[in-house]
Design a protein that fits this description.
There is one protein chain. This protein has no helices and 22 strands. The mean pLDDT is 96. The strands form 2 sheets. An 11-stranded antiparallel beta sheet has the order 4-3-2-1-11-10-9-8-7-6-5, with no helix packed on it. Strands 12, 13, 14, 15, 16, 17, 18, 19, 20, 21 and 22 form an 11-stranded antiparallel beta sheet that branches. By secondary structure, it is an all-beta fold.
Length: 311
């Protein structure tokens, strides 16, 4: 519970339980970005490792055998093929002749900043982290990191000098059937980071709408979540525009985003990576925070990650 970055699924590697686990490493510069999603999925006897890649312009799914997947608890890292991922950085060496894909490079992370946690809230899911039958568990591993290095993708280089990284993960058996997810770090105020997910959550005999939202500004954290009794005041998705307002006590937060065209990724259904979703990492988002009706923060970020998945 207290170390969700670690591999949670070791007990399933020799079983046929339907299961997935994936980490998400988002790296952005002022004008560019690239995200890597390493993970595994177990669908009965069919067990695979994979790395998904998404850029401003395209996306890729690279298959690996489960034997190509390695992990370490201390220090934490995962390795798929020649690729290594950790909270200290990533080393990339991907060659896929079928997709004419060649990606290599290295990014180092430093100054990792994350959300506040305690026994009641071991991570962003709060007390829901302790429920063993959730179909999808979510954790934020680093709200913001400094990213240095470069990635070469098909002879096009993305340079990271004072770039920004973000790390999260999911594990369980299935993604929610419908959800909105967005994440942003490139605000005018450089000491700002933001993450939001609103999803349809199956819970035994009924479903409920789960909200996890966190805004950090100058080391002050504002959380709007189901477990701290926030309410959805406004929820509009029209064409390429997203407009959401959440309220908790005296605070109200509005999220307005313009969705750039997304690129296809694969998400799990009962352990199988069979659901097509589309993600943009080049959208824009404006966050407005009010207290007692007065604006105390308003800013816009470029290079926002955004997924809108509807039934």
């Amino acid at each position: 519970m207290r170390n969700p970055d670690l591999f949670q699924g070791e007990k399933y590697l020799n079983k046929t339980k339907k299961y997935f686990e994936g980490w998400y490493f988002k790296n952005t510069t002022k004008n560019n970005g690239i995200s890597f999603i390493p993970g595994i999925n177990i669908d009965g006897n069919n067990k695979k490792a994979f790395i998904q890649v998404i850029t401003n312009d395209s996306s890729y799914f690279v298959d690996y055998g489960i034997s190509d997947f390695e992990f370490s608890y201390s220090p934490f890292y995962i390795k798929i093929g020649n690729n290594i991922f950790s909270k200290a950085g990533i080393d990339i060496d991907i060659k896929d002749e079928k997709q004419n894909l060649n990606i290599y490079g290295q990014i180092k992370y430093s100054n990792n900043k994350n959300i506040q946690t305690n026994l009641f809230n071991p991570n962003i899911m709060g007390p829901f982290s302790y429920i063993p039958f959730m179909e999808c568990n979510h954790a934020i591993l680093a709200m913001k990191t400094t990213a240095y290095g470069n990635i070469d993708i098909n002879n096009k280089k993305i340079m990271f000098e004072n770039g920004i990284g973000y790390i999260e993960k999911d594990w369980g058996c299935s993604f929610p059937s419908s959800y909105v997810w967005c994440q942003a770090n490139y605000f005018k105020n450089p000491n700002t980071s933001f993450m939001l997910s609103i999803a349809d959550i199956p819970f035994k005999l009924f479903n409920f709408t789960g909200v996890i939202c966190v805004l950090i500004v100058d080391d002050v954290e504002y959380k709007f979540t189901t477990y701290n009794r926030c309410k959805i005041v406004e929820y509009d998705i029209i064409d390429n525009f997203l407009n959401i307002t959440l309220k908790k006590g005296n605070y109200c937060i509005n999220i307005y985003s313009t969705y750039n065209p997304g690129h296809k990724l694969s998400a799990p259904i009962k352990g199988k990576m069979s659901k097509d979703i589309f993600e943009s990492i080049s959208s824009s988002i404006t966050i407005t925070l009010k207290k007692n009706g007065k604006i105390i923060f308003s800013d816009t970020s470029s290079n926002c990650g955004l997924e809108i998945v509807q039934n």
